[in-house]
Amino acid sequence: MQEKLQEIFSQHYRKRDALIPILQDIQGAFGFLPPEAMTAAGKFCRMDPVEVYGVATFYAQFKFSPMGRNVVMVCQGTACHVMGGGRVLEEVQTQLGVSAGETTKDRVFTLETVACIGACALAPAMVVNKNTYGRMKAERVTEILNANRGD
Ligand code: FES
């Protein structure tokens, strides 16, 4: 990890403004922000670890645990909510055994919720990796998860 971090730091100026791009590069390299990498980024930018953590937690793009191989996003925006998106989310949570924001123990799936994926006409909608599924029903969840398990 140290070698990769040094490579990342060598591409940035040692200043506070560099923290977010550095955290983005760390996440790009490791898939999430390992605590020791956040500490090292703070030292590099001459920032307190608490400040680094504060910045990182402010942005939803940063992950603090490894992501699954496949990312399932179940829309909970207004259109999807009205059309039964909550029931779809419940079914995905039940089948994967995780709550929104969590990754399965085998790291095959990470489950997230989103406020809108721009497919309101197809509500309720969910996305698995790059595949969008509209007019979702809880009964389709098993088939869709199985179809995307091997990606
Ligand atoms: S609210 Fe779900 S796609 Fe827009």
Structure description:
- The mean pLDDT is about 95.
- The longest helix has 12 residues, at about 20-30.
- The chain is built from seven helices and four strands; from the N terminus they run ααααβααβββα.
- It has a four-stranded mixed beta sheet with strand order 2-1-3-4, with helices on one face.
- With about 150 residues, the chain is α+β, with helices and mostly antiparallel strands.
- FE2/S2 (inorganic) cluster binds near residues 80, 116 and 120.
Q: Which key terms come to mind for this protein?
A:
alpha+beta; 4 strands; 7 helices; binds FE2/S2 (inorganic) cluster; Arc Repressor Mutant, subunit A; 151 residues; four-stranded mixed β-sheet
Q: Mind sketching the topology for me?
A:
Elements: H1 2-9, H2 19-30, H3 35-44, H4 49-58, E1 70-75, H5 78-82, H6 85-96, E2 109-114, E3 126-128, E4 131-133, H7 141-148
Parallel strand pairs: 1-2
Antiparallel strand pairs: 1-3, 3-4
Bound molecules: FE2/S2 (inorganic) cluster (FES).
The site of FE2/S2 (inorganic) cluster has 11 residues, from helix 5.
SSE pattern: HHHHEHHEEEH
CATH superfamily of the largest domain: Glutaredoxin
Provide a count of the helices.
7
Bound molecules: FE2/S2 (inorganic) cluster
Query: Cα-atom Rg, whole angstroms?
Result: 18 Å
CATH architecture verdict of the largest domain: 3-Layer(aba) Sandwich
Give unreliable regions as ranges: none
Q: Report strand order across the widest sheet.
A: 2-1-3-4
- At the fold tier of CATH, the topology name of the largest domain is Glutaredoxin
Instruction: Tell me, briefly, the overall form.
Output: elongated
Kindly state the percentage of residues in helix: 40-55%
Distance between the termini: 26 Å
- Tally of domains: 2
In terms of DSSP E residues, the strand content is: 5-15%
CATH top level of the largest domain is: Alpha Beta
Largest sheet: 4 strands, mixed
Mean pLDDT: 94
For the secondary structure, the number of strands is 4
Structural class by secondary-structure content: alpha+beta
